[in-house]
């Protein structure tokens, strides 16, 4: 089911964003449910349609188990009716067989409903793909292999899917993995993995005083992006469970190169660059109007101590405060977390980085500029072979963050 729930439909005005024709077509698919709820609309025009009544039905669901597809459908359309999906939906419909139905006056909600009416699964993929790509805190790995000419075959995708299913089954996630191969606007290879999570049970309300328990596996999506230019693998996965990062990386390496260790090279956030470069770590070289300030750092009190402290700016500029109090950051031990305020044009975000192999930002247009800056100043870098053992040991022991290998 889509990440959105049905609460947005408590406001009847949200339903008015749909063209009346498409809304009625959606209702007709589940006419049995609306007849059961005694909601009559077949002889009603747009002006007299009971939007309040429909909003009430969608917000106070009954018989969910019997009409799960209805509520999942409206939730999916609701999730993809947000303005951020406008360009995604428009581009998708423009390339579809029903592109002739696209009009300049269509709202985002109406485009989402149009896609759903033609192919619900396609809308589901658009929503999950968008959510996965925009997911924060990607894990990063790299390879020392040349990936410039890498092409993944359908046979390799099938082998990857089967191997991941073996792992998912062993973790009580079921035989649910389905892998889709695409390419994004940056010409990266993208593997979108749909899978079930661990089995759950939940009570649902039936008619009157009745209720029943249903068992289900929540649907989840992960994204693996392979940058053929940099030789990096970006994993859009949660920080937990810990086994997932290793599973995806090792299985992918085995399938593509017959080498479980192909994507074992740590690509890390080297926060010690803040000490080395001082204020120069805030400099961005590029066309965008970027302003950056260091807000706080978390570091060990000394190289020998296991105690940590947080240094936080009084006025949003930690370098200015340290200069004012003549404080030397080099007097502290390893930096394990840093927070920056990044302004690009009129937009601004707080970026938090751990000394690990995970990003701390969305990988959208804003995040790609942040990524470029971090690479320019050397915070994002790939470890040398000599550094790998010590760094992985540090991550696993001191930081308690998932190691990169």
SSE map:
Layout: H1 12-15, H2 20-29, H3 31-36, H4 51-59, H5 68-79, H6 86-94, H7 108-118, H8 120-133, E1 139-142, H9 154-170, E2 178-183, E3 189-196, E4 200-205, E5 211-216, E6 219-227, E7 232-236, H10 243-257, E8 265-269, H11 273-277, E9 290-300, E10 308-312, H12 318-324, E11 335-344, E12 347-354, H13 365-376, E13 380-382, H14 385-399
Antiparallel strand pairs: 1-7, 1-8, 2-3, 3-6, 4-5, 6-7, 8-13, 9-10, 9-11, 11-12
Describe the structure.
The chain is an alpha+beta fold and 405 residues long. Helices cover 36% and strands 21% of the residues. The protein has 14 helices and 13 strands. It has helices at residues 12-15, 20-29, 31-36, 51-59, 68-79, 86-94, 108-118, 120-133, 154-170, 243-257, 273-277, 318-324, 365-376, 385-399, and strands spanning 139-142, 178-183, 189-196, 200-205, 211-216, 219-227, 232-236, 265-269, 290-300, 308-312, 335-344, 347-354, 380-382. The protein has a 7-stranded antiparallel β-sheet with strand order 2-3-6-7-1-8-13, with helices on both faces. A 4-stranded antiparallel β-sheet has the order 10-9-11-12, with no helix packed on it. A two-stranded antiparallel sheet has the order 4-5. Strand 6 and strand 7 (232-236) form a beta hairpin. The longest helix is centred in the middle third of the chain and has 17 residues, at 154-170.
What descriptors fit this protein?
405 residues, alpha+beta, 7-stranded antiparallel sheet, 4-stranded antiparallel sheet, 14 helices, 13 strands, disordered C terminus
What's this, in brief?
The chain has 405 residues and is α+β, with helices and mostly antiparallel strands. The chain has helices spanning 12-15, 20-29, 31-36, 51-59, 68-79, 86-94, 108-118, 120-133, 154-170, 243-257, 273-277, 318-324, 365-376, 385-399, and strands at residues 139-142, 178-183, 189-196, 200-205, 211-216, 219-227, 232-236, 265-269, 290-300, 308-312, 335-344, 347-354, 380-382. Helix 2 (20-29) runs parallel beside helix 7.
